[in-house]
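Intended use. Records like the one below are meant for learning the mapping from a protein sequence to its folded structure. Do not use them to infer anything beyond what is encoded.
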Amino acid sequence: MYRVTGKQLAALAILSALFAGVIVTCAQRAMDSGQRSEERPVLADPSVASDEQNNIEIYREYSPAVVNITSKSYAETWFGVYPQEGSGSGSIIDDKGHILTNYHVVQGTQQLDVQIENEKYPARLIGSDPDNDLAVIKVNAPRNHLKTIKLGTSKGLQVGQKVLAIGNPFGLQHTLTTGIISGLERPLRDPASRRTIEGAIQTDASINPGNSGGPLLNAKGEMIGINTAIYSPSGGSVGIGFAVPVDTANAIIPDLIGKGYVSRPWLGINIMPLNRRAARLLGLPVDEGIMVGAVYRGSGAAAAGLRAASTRDTVFGGLVIVEAGDVIVSIDGRPVTNSDDLQRALSDRHPGQTVSVEIIRQGRRMTVQVRLSERPQQAR
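Structure written out for the chain above:
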């Protein structure tokens, strides 16, 4: 057992007194310091204050230009006709009442309404482009109610750049979310149409159902994209959203307003995708590609002499290729192995232009010149 002597007790007493004095002194200093700190003004981080003010100013200036779109269609079942409703967002782009939104927001709708601030107005579809999931609708509203958003550019964007999204998620009007550009040049594939939107902007700004068609803005308040889709195993926002680049919209808005559709080049064929197994069975010297499945009469492909595959029906309702058609290998030197490649190869061409199409026909490579025509309504 450890014992404490008298001398040790005396020493401990002195130390205790000194320690207590230190505690009192430190406590007094803390109190004095606290009193002084209360008197001192607290300065906010200027960078934080500036960023917050930027958010506030952009929201205040441009949220009135973002509208809530509600659509109504009617479905017929064995039990009667039932209305189906949907909602989305849109941006007023001019003082004539034209509103840019997503095609899927207005697809198949029989009634459109637009809410601007607290007023609701009927709207009508002006033009649509399923390939890029874009559409323009028009509302007849007083001009003093038509606050517009400036269309910027999607060129020169940088990953990490600040972005803001304004929309109506779950019907909650004029909701602002912020984030950054998380990625660029993302291919965005629509599983329903099997079309691919090229160069989509990826962002972590929260996007949810109802945000579709709303603007993605930069720190200047300029639209750089149209919020279109999210990646979401759960159905809600997980921080991976996608926007169609505004330059894509800038290029087609005149056609949508003037024609109601986008004038696109067309070879005049239907295609059949090829995989390695099918190519081997047909004795083709390729592993993948696109085969001409049908040639439309009067088209550029017909004039160029492109040959379609010969097929026959099976008892199961499918098709069997009896004789291979021409296999397209490249267009103007650009390799073509699937429908997305074909779309890209023609993306910067126009109806009336002629392209060089490299094909494989009966094992031989050859090149034919095809004059492009405008894609007809039934092929859009």
